[in-house]
What we know:
The chain is α+β, with helices and mostly antiparallel strands. The protein folds into 6 domains: about 5-80 and about 220-260, ATPase, nucleotide binding domain (Nucleotidyltransferase, domain 5, 2-Layer Sandwich); about 85-220, Rossmann fold (3-Layer(aba) Sandwich), CATH 3.40.50; about 265-340 and about 430-495, 2-Layer Sandwich (Nucleotidyltransferase, domain 5), CATH 3.30.420.260; about 345-430, no CATH class; about 500-610, Dna Ligase, domain 1; about 630-675, no CATH class. The chain is about 30% helix and about 25% strand. It has 16 helices and 35 strands. Strands 13, 14, 15, 20, 23, 24, 31, 34 and 35 form a 9-stranded mixed β-sheet that branches. Helix 2 packs across helix 7 (about 205-235) and helix 10 crosses helix 11. The protein is globular. It starts with 5 loop residues before the first strand and ends with a strand.
Amino acid sequence: MTVADWRLAVDIGGTFTDVVLMDRASGRVVVDKTLTTPSAPLDGVRTGVRQLLAKAGVTPSDITAPIVHATTLITNALIEGKVGRAGLVTTTGFGDTLLIRDEHRYDMYDLQIEFPAPPIPRERISEISERTNAKGLVVETPTAADLKRIADELRAQNVESVGICLINSYANPANERAIADYLRVELGVPVCISSEVSPQIREYPRMITTACNAATMPVIGPYLDELTKWLAAEGFGGSVLMMLSNGGVVSTDDAARTPIRLVESGPAAGALAGSWFARRLGEDRLMCFDMGGTTAKSCLIVDGEPELTNTFEVARIYRFKKGSGFPVSVPSVDLVEIGAGGGSQAWVDDLGLLKVGPESTGAMPGPACYGRGGTHAAVTDSDLALGMLDAEFFLGGDMPLDLASSQAALGRIADKLKLPVGDTAAGVHELVNQNMAASSRMHAVELGADLRGVTLLAFGGAGPVHACGVAELLESPRVIFPVNASVLSALGTLVSPVRIDLARSMVRPIQGIDEAERDALLSELREEGHRVLIAAGADPASVTFRYGVDARYIGQGNEITIWMGEGNEFPGNTLDIVNSFETDYRRIYGLTIPDVGVEAVTWRLSAYAKAEEFEPLVELSDKPGAPHGTRAVRFTRQGEPIMTPVYRRSDIGRGQVIEGPVIIEERETTAVIRPNWTVTLGNDGSVIADRKVK
């Protein structure tokens, strides 16, 4: 008899909390969704986990492997400004850096240009007399009197955490560490330093990253403490691993020290799930389309891997305007995210034009159809009014929807537009599809990619409802609806490698670099990477290191990242670095610059251990299924409602071909297959929709 090996994953979204149980021994997967509880996130986790265990017939003691957790707590805290009361310590003369930013104007001609308020206001920023030069030589150390003064200043401000960001500390962190040691004892609050959070050049990105980290430490710390205590009290045997923005996982202790690395935790998990499916399905190019209750995300997977970026912008004032947010220096999956989810509000602007999002009704009160007191018309209300959703089968009937409330909320929008309710609902559905397609195109252009012909992987609670509509706008011929699509991000955490990405700036001409100095820096990064991975439960023998360099021509202001290979030592020499740099530079810009030296700016190291292989159990019938009913569905503003067959996903048989339009329902989501699409079933149980060529 095979012994069960249960794994648990949790993903807190803006509207729903997803939970997944997976038995690696048998391949059995059990899933559940419950509404997120924003004011007390653990309440939603408790509810979801208990419901899931009861459904699977599993006890907490049966789960001894680490529990993997993704969350939007950090990004939501920064976007909403609901952060802790943090203080900041910096070098004398640099106290206004968070207000000055980098002097970049994202809209040159906007005289009323806005930026998000810094997470730490000026009155909680203390300056201290100290100095480290650009070569890492400590010129001045803080005096005992100065240390006491800043401790008194921060204590008077009742700070809950402190960030320290000193000039040139990436080259030598001695002064930062001395101040941190003093403040931890004097104030008794969490303290972070820029030389650990983001040890890289460029003062503003390093300081805003440190400030965001310090401001979110009081948010994540108490939550993780409460979570681990509850899990222990319930009898769970495993530790907790937190999903990072780059797709790796770390221990709760490491997550509490650097919560800014969790800023895109949930979306990263979805991208990794997309990578897993791309490799399984043999798709060279796959676009992850993840639409939940609050946001929609898209990420391009090429050759089985998502693109990574070293800087991620959070809390944008304008979602489509790069530069209007905080450019935090953390490795992250390169994706685009917009306020277009099932809970995104429909509204009419001053010009009388219909708009959707970015404001969301969230989980409380939610769209009008949730029947929880919400009065705003949202995307889910439109989908329900169009017949795409079954009011009595939402979450399998556990959460019936209120059609009358949806129509009333849409009616108020329709009155302003002077349109029928049905036309308004179709307009909302069409507009949110246009918004998502436009954001995906914009992101693809930034990556230098053409999305025409790319396959979409649709997941999230609302993703399968809108995927075919978005695919038509992107000229995509195929959409894949995987098994357990609504909780795929949570599933992604269970198939992700243990990984950490580290970086440290050391600006040196490559041709004259001191290899002993370089190797000493990389050795420190390897030690830190190894420590983090072992703390996350990785097998020490399986840890692999990959090396990269941010390089540029001497005199340039920006760098490109080149990857040099893997191993326990840096795999290359000076000539290898220069040749790799010039190859990538020519690929990006079409030329190289002769007779100009190359300099290394930042050295990078990825430490990772591969995830265990897993084959989910899929039970497929060889008999073609029949629809269990029909209902009128309106797919376009111009068209009339069409009587559309409705299938349960479990009723579709292997080899069965279904002509669209068709609705395919499962407990947690609904796949809407538009006219001129054909549906088949993949060997892994995925529903595959192919667009007919006209």
